[in-house]
Known about the structure:
2-enoyl-CoA Hydratase, Chain A, domain 1; 2 domains
Amino acid sequence: MVLDLFKKSKYITLRREGKTEIPDGLWVKCPRCNEILYTKDLERNLKVCQKCAYHFRLSAPERLKITLDPDSFHEYDSQLETADPLEFPQYKEKVTNARETTGLREAVVIGQGAINGYPLVIGVMDARFIMGSMGIVVGEKITRAIELALTKRLPLVIFCASGGARMQEGILSLTQMIKTSAALARFDEAGLLYISVLTDPTMGGVSASFGFLGDIILAEPGALIGFAGPRVIEQTIRQKLPEGFQQAEFLQNHGFIDLVVPRPKMRETLTTLLSLHLQEVK
C-alpha cells in the first residue's frame, strides 16, 4: 500500500532527466503579461486572461458558441470552396492544409441564429484559415449573408478577423471589397441594421470594406485594426507612431469605433442593440 503512493498518477508529473512532463495543451502563456494560465480556466473565462484581460483569438466555432443561443445556428453555403484562379504556386496545398487544421472550408462561416431570442444573420471570420484573408469565396459568402439578411429583413452582425486580401487570388480578391460594399449599400437603403465587430486582427481589405461600414462598429479590447501594418506605415512616413496606434482603444478615442466591448459583455451588448433596433422597426 505504501508503495502505491510512489506510482505514477495522471494527476501529477514526474521529473526525468531534468525535465518535467506536462501534458500538451494543459497550460498556456499569456503573450501580454506572461502569466501561465490553466487552459480550462481560460476557456471558462471566454479565453480572456484572468490577470491582464488580454483577449486571446477565438475560432469561428468558439465565437458562435459563446454568442448565439444554443441550437439556434443554421449555417448557409458551407459547401463553397475556393479554387486556384491564378494557379498560384503552392496555393492549393496551403488551402488544403488550412482545411485540415481548422476543420473549415473557408475563412468565414455564415448563417442564421438568435441572440437571447432576437433573430439575426451572422458571419464570423476565422484568422486560423490563412490569417482570415479575403478571397473570392470569403467575399461571396459575406455578400450572400448580406443578401440573406436583406431578403429576410433581419439584422446583420459580422465578426471580422482578417489580415487583409488574399494575395494568391490577386485582383479577384481585391474586387471583393467592391462587391461586399455594394451589397451593404443596398442593405443600408432598406433601413436595416448592420453591426460590425472588429476583432484581432482586422486589417487590409476587410477593414477598408465591410469592416468599417457598420451602422454600429464595436471592437474587442486590444484588437489590431487598420489598413497597412504599423511597421509598414513607419517605414513609409519615416516617423514613430503614437503609443497604441491601430489598437481598438486608440481608434475609439479618435472616433473610428463606437464602443470597445470586453468579450464577457459582448453578448449582452448585442442583445441591447438588437432590442433597440426591433423596437424602432415596430
